[in-house]
């Protein structure tokens, strides 16, 4: 049985037995906040438990490293939609210790990309289009600095309302302990 078959088989049972009913909520976050966090597997349930959040409480936007790298990319658009369309009144950027982005090396990743069959010609086309793949694929040295950078980008975005506090935190993926990096109430 493939993983896809396994998922679809379970999903049929989930729907048939109406197990979804316990998760019923609206599209608006009850606690009126949006979190930008990392896609790390350790945070899937831990982050919600460590912050006392349940289904329906919060909008969550995830990417590698909880990094906002472009002011007009899909991450920023999602945060703006959460604020203006989905009634989020606060933004939290929550990075984590032991993040894979803290050790990411662009050159090594490009080696893995070519090992998986991406042609050198494709990489050359991208490079000749003005994209520095090494820089685009590199990680960060300090999760705290990375969180501060994302908070600053969100806070200073020309479309983000001044009254929206933007907080920065770092979570320990083993214990759930949160460390405050930026208190968005203190501007």
Automatic annotation (TrEMBL):
GO molecular-function terms, A-Z: carbonate dehydratase activity; zinc ion binding
PANTHER family in alphabetical order: CARBON DISULFIDE HYDROLASE (PTHR43175:SF3), CARBONIC ANHYDRASE (PTHR43175)
Phylogenetic placement of the source organism: Bacteria, Bacillati, Bacillota, Bacilli, Bacillales
UniProt entry tagged with the keyword rRNA processing: no
Pfam families attached to this UniProt entry: Pro_CA
Family: Belongs to the beta-class carbonic anhydrase family.
Name assigned to this protein: carbonic anhydrase
Binding-site list for Zn(2+): 38, 40, 96, 99
Keyword Zinc (UniProt): yes
